[in-house]
């Protein structure tokens, strides 16, 4: 099958973008083809995206004292902006709403929280955020909080706190996606052991090619694969190559490296669009995503492997994790 037809046939899922902060800016319109950022509704449609994870990221200046307030503001901005275009994009809360969006041709928007700082030490906040539509949660953003230690803590980093383990158990009951991105190595393995549902690493790459601390080494990739999880490969140049210039082919090297060692069931896409200033050349914004399909086909991946990488593996995790349906 040619790459254009293959991309159109596949369910394409991007496991991470940071576009929600744009929704909070005066004058921004998600429904326009914008000159700022990497993602908006027209470009999502042009890129053939079927499911987009939208991360709520509480900026560092808000994390210490204002995290929950800032998270709620961003969540409201997300709902307000996305619901203007409900004929083209649908917010998903469970398997039923996901399947309905896919069957009607709407883009499915899944709201995630990048870092658990907003929870403080109160499990009730998790329940409230779930009621507001949060369906995925990464425990930390590089640093230390009440749930876990992140990669930036360094060699002294611990793993999950008792509260962090409680949060994971409750997320499993609520049907929420558990995201291991940004965790310290110890926290990563403890999370895999703690979660009853498959874990995702929403945006990271292979440390065997690029030694950035946020990337996963082979032991982590093997453990994630055995747990049934998925890694969304990022288009952030610093995660792709240690060279000053990063080529599109270098990103394809990460797909090939992981597929050769661990198979294609663990692979997905986690662009990190709008969380990075520049993306890998060739994938400058989400409208260019079909070129990734072309590149994977040129590298010798079979059609069924590409379908899994583009979204099939993330779709498996969504169907294994989200609840069947509840009042919303």
Keywords:
328 residues, 9 strands, TIM Barrel, 41% helix, 14 helices, single chain
Overview of the molecule:
The protein is of the alpha/beta class and 328 residues long. The chain has a single domain (10-321), classed as Metal-dependent hydrolases (TIM Barrel). The protein contains 14 helices and nine strands. It has helices spanning 3-9, 20-23, 41-46, 60-63, 67-82, 95-104, 123-131, 162-174, 185-194, 218-227, 237-240, 248-262, 290-298, 303-321; strands spanning 13-14, 51-57, 89-91, 107-114, 134-138, 177-179, 199-204, 230-233, 267-269. Helix 1 crosses helix 13 (290-298), helix 7 (123-131) runs parallel beside helix 8 and helix 9 (185-194) runs parallel beside helix 10. The longest helix has 19 residues, at 303-321. The relative contact order is 0.16.
């Amino acid at each position: 099958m040619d790459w254009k037809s293959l991309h159109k046939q596949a369910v394409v899922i991007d496991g991470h973008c940071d576009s929600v902060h744009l929704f909070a800016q005066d004058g921004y319109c998600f429904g326009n083809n914008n000159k700022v950022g990497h993602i908006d509704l027209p470009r999502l449609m042009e890129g053939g995206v079927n499911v987009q994870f939208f991360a709520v990221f509480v900026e560092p200046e808000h994390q210490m004292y204002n995290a929950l307030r800032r998270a709620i503001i961003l969540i409201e901005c997300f709902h307000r902006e996305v619901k203007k275009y409900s004929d083209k994009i649908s917010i998903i809360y469970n398997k039923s709403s996901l399947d309905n969006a896919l069957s009607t041709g709407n883009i499915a928007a899944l709201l995630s929280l990048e870092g658990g700082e907003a929870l403080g030490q109160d499990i009730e906040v998790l329940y409230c955020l779930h009621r507001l539509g949060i369906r995925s949660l990464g425990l930390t953003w590089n640093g230390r909080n009440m749930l876990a230690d992140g990669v930036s803590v360094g060699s002294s980093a611990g793993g999950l706190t008792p509260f962090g383990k409680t949060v994971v158990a409750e997320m499993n009951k609520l049907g929420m996606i558990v995201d291991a991105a940004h965790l310290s190595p110890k926290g990563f393995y403890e999370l895999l052991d703690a979660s009853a549902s498959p874990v995702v690493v929403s945006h990271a790459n292979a440390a065997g090619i690029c030694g950035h601390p946020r990337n996963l080494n082979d032991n982590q990739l093997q453990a994630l694969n055995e747990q049934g999880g998925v890694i969304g490969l990022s288009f952030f140049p610093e995660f792709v190559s240690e060279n000053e210039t990063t080529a599109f082919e270098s990103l394809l090297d990460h797909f090939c490296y992981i597929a050769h060692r661990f198979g294609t069931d663990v692979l997905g896409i986690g662009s990190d669009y709008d969380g990075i200033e520049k993306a890998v050349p060739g994938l400058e914004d989400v409208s260019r995503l079909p070129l990734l399909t072309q590149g994977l086909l040129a590298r010798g991946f079979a059609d069924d492997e590409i379908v899994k990488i583009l979204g099939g593996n993330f779709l498996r995790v969504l169907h294994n994790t989200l609840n069947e349906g509840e009042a919303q």
